[in-house]
Structures are given as structure tokens and as C-alpha cells.
Design brief:
By secondary structure, the chain is α+β, with helices and mostly antiparallel strands. It folds into three domains: 3-75, 434 Repressor (Amino-terminal Domain) (Orthogonal Bundle); 104-224 and 464-584, no CATH class; 230-454, no CATH class. Helices cover 54% and strands 13% of the residues. The chain has 18 helices and twelve strands. It has helices spanning 3-16, 21-28, 32-39, 50-57, 61-66, 77-131, 150-174, 189-226, 248-256, 327-332, 376-379, 395-405, 424-433, 458-496, 501-509, 514-544, 549-574, 578-584, and strands spanning 230-234, 246-247, 260-273, 286-291, 306-307, 322-326, 340-350, 358-374, 391-394, 410-411, 413-418, 452-456. The strands form two sheets. The chain has a six-stranded mixed beta barrel with strand order 3-4-9-6-8-7. Helix 6 packs antiparallel against helix 7. The radius of gyration is 43 Å and the shape is elongated. Mean pLDDT is 78; it is low at 134-151, 176-186 and 378-383.
Length: 586
Amino acid sequence: MDNVRFGKFVRACRQEQNMTQKQLAERLHVSDKAVSKWENGIGFPDIKLLEPLAECLDVSLLELMQSERLRERQIEAKEAEQAVADTISQSEKTRELRMRMEKIRLLLTVSALGILYLVFSGFFSVLQASQKGQGGLSISRQAGIWYENPVIFYIWVGIFITGCVTVAFFTLWRTQQFPVPAARIGRHRVQGLLTILIDILVVVMLHTYMANIANNIEQLHALPEAIPITAYLSNNTGSMRAQVDIREDIVQGLENSAYVRDLDLTVRLKAGLDEVDPDNWNTLNLFLCGINRIGAAGGIDEASIVWNTGRDASLFAGTANLCVVSRQLFEQNGWQLGEKIRLCQYYYYRGGRQNKELFMAPLEDVTYEIAGYADWITDRRENDGLTPPDILVPFGSVRASHQRQGIRFVAHSASFTVNDPLHLNDFKQEMKALGLHSLTPLSTAVSCDGDVLNVNDSVFISTATRLRQLIDTAKAFYPVLLALIVCVGYLVTLLLLQSRRQEMALLRSIGLNRRRCFFLFFREQFLLTVCGVLAGSLAAVLLHGNYGASSALTACTVGICYIAGNCLALWRLLKVSVMEALVRTQ
């Protein structure tokens, strides 16, 4: 049965009944677009609608099936059977075609949703990275996510999307829904392979570009470990750093700061064993040093200390009355590990901020348990000419003694490592709020207060500045690179489709408008681009590694930009008139 003939017959009968397409559609409970398709020979009504349609048009079912008026109502049985068979066959073909088209739409919709998911997951990943200060256009390796493995992620996603698109286009191919068989991809294998190859190269190029940005960002974030920034407190001229007076509020601020790690604090005392005779200062013959961690002791290795059972260097972080003594003192007095000794402690103080002379006053007597001993001679380095201590005690224990006695507490040295050097300005602002100042080496008034911050950040700043410049330059060039990809898609499509201008002109000459021709060739280019982008993504991941959702975002970006160039080239090719195109191809 001829759809065009059927459509003309339906239109003629409808006009005889003085009905519009909308009125006929309402009586059949279908859309007016469906009626329009029937009359234009594009579609065919469902077999269940034939009898109601014949009644509406006031014709017999046989006349409707044969698409002509019958002069004689009596016809042969074979002729009627053949007409019915043709009608049923045509209706079944239309229904089968409709079901196939629904499957195609479903497959393409699933593919589009998969691609959109990759795009949005990539944008979400980049947005999270920008909120964490890692850079919005960067790609970074993400651990603990389901697509962390590059091979698993891209193989499964590639198989899923490519499979859906391939099945959809294969089904479209078999249903002969391409307007003209000459427009099929199979007839232009060379141009198709070149398009896929160029897409692969562009994806690998952009992924390499983004991987370079990611590597620079990784280096920037790894810089604090490679070039740690150390800092210490000194007096205003920097001439004193080991025996300065550091206020307790500054000590507390350093301990509470999130920008400070590996904080080393010391406080020095004098002590006498058991008791001190004020008239005989020789009995005040021991040097004590309160430290908050083993690193503050100036080079003593924890492994070199002989510990009592159950004791370790963590005792210095607490306030318990425990101590570590020098081997010489330990052997000289015949002490045993775990033995308790009574120390009469004296603290140092000055008469004023600019008075370097130290005075001593009694603090309190404390009984310490010997937790270990070590050899100061081999393990202890002298610091700024100070005498190595005889006994190491917890910093918190000395601090607690001052508080119990109501005596103003000061630490005598403080040094640390900056925890987050990438936010160095925020760190310095916080230190300034604590009351720390900058160094004034030319000052004539030398103070003994430890309220000056010295930061060794010159090497880190120069290296970080260079890396940031590289990252910013690469990010600034990113829009230009996307524009270049659009240009590549435009030029490649324009060159490869020059040989098919005659084909385009012929399609236009048989009645296809520019819009239908555009979508015909666009479907072809879209399929080739998707295959090329997926293949290029696999190659890029195997070459440079996986960067999670940002790798998917890179692939989708290439696909979108390249397809944008395709669209521009196709529209330009189709703007040429039919006669001009036919003349040029002669």
C-alpha cells in the first residue's frame, strides 16, 4: 500500500466532509499532527483506527484500504482479501517501525543521561576543588570514590554509552530511517576514521594539558612537606632566641593555633637536690629544662634514652612529675629507674625588659620520678652557648608549678613549623593578633622579650610563586584552547565534507530542507565524535592516569567544543544554494 496515495485519499475525503484535521483528530481521539502525517504520506494509522476512520470519512473500509472510490459495490473476494492483507501488512510495518523508534529514543536518552551525569559529576568535582582552594579548572586525583580505578571506570562507561549509541544507530540503520541511503557512514569510511582519529588526538592533547595543571597543583600542595617553613621567636633585634621571655598568653596562642605544628617550647630552671642552703649557692647546682616534646631538647634522640618500663617521650606533653636525667648524674648518684628524687626548683627572672641580667627566686619543691636517662655528651647539642641541662622535665609541670605559686610564667624559647604555608598571610595575621611583631635589627633599644616572629619562608615563597604563575598562566589559556578545539572541529568538518557537497545538493534537490539535511549529517558526525572522544579518553587515561570525574569532564568538554565546530561547518556548507553546489561539483 502506498502511503502517499493513502494520504491523498484521506485528505480528499476529509475535505468532502468539510472537516478540518483537528476535527477529524478529535473524532478519532488522536492528535492533529497524526492526521497531518497520514495525509502527507509520512505515517499510517493503527489498524484499529481504520474502521472508525472510514466511518468518519463516509467511505467503506475497502475503499479506504484501496485508497479509491469504487464504482461498483460488488467486488471479487480475492481482491478484497488482497486489499485487507495489504492494509494489515502496512499497519504492522508502521507499528513495528514505531516500536523501533521508541527503542531508539530510549537508547539515545539513556546515552544522553550517562553523558550528562559525567558532565555534572565533573562540574561538581571541580566546584568542590575550587571551594577547597585547589583551583576550579584543575583536575586532581580523588581517592575513595567508585571511579578511582581508571581502567574499570572508562571501560565500563565507554562500553555502556558506546553500546547504547551503537545499538540505537544500528536499529536506525536497519529501519531505513536515514532519508537517503547515500548518507550512511559506511560509504565514507576514510572520512569517518579521520574524524575519529582527530578526536582522539584532541582529547589526548587536552587531557595532557589538564594533567600538567594537575601535576603543578599537586606539587604546590606537596610543597609544605618538601620545603617546610620554620619559625621561631626572638627579641626585637634577633640577637636572642634561647633565653628570651615569652609571655604565657603567647605560649597559649601558639598551642591553640591551627597554623602551628611541631611546636617546641622550653623553660629553664635551677635546682638543688633534696634541699638548698641559701648561704651556699653550690647546693643549687643542677640545670633543669622543661620541654613539651623530645624535639625541643635540641637533638636528643628518643631511641638513645634508656626508659623505665611503660615510659616514653610522650611524658613531656603532659604535666606529670616525671623526668629524664643525664647518664653522668644517674650513675654518680647511683639512682635506679623509677626512683623518686626531690628537687628544690628556682626560676629565672629579669629586672626589666631591657635588663639582660638574670635573677633567681625559689619556685617550689617537687618530687620527680626518674623515667629514663641518656648520655648528654654524645646526644645533646649546646644551643646559643647555654649549658646543657642535667634534668629534662615536662613543660606543663613547670608551668603548673608557676600557677600554683601565683608566679608569672614565661617560656624561654619557642620554635615551630608552619602547618599550612599555602595560607601564609592568614598565619601572619593570626600571629600579629597574638602580639608578635616583625624584626627590627637596627633598633638601638634591645629588648629581652620574645615577642618577635622570625619566619624562614623566602625559599618557599619563591617556589610557590613560580608554581602559581605556571598554574594561573595555564588556566588563563584554557578558554583559548577550547576556542581552538571549536576551530579544529569546524575546519576538519569543512574539509572532510567538501567531497560530499554534491550529496548535500542532491538531498536538497529532492525536497529535503536545510534543517533536515543538517540533522542528517549532524547525526553522523555526532556518532563519530562520541566514538573518538571515548577512544581518546581511554588512551589519555592509560597514558596519564585517571583524574576521576574531571577526566570525564575533560572528555565531555572536547566533545561539546568539537561538535560545536561541526555544527558551524555543516551550517555553512548547507547555506550554499542547490544549483551552486551542483555546478561546483561538476
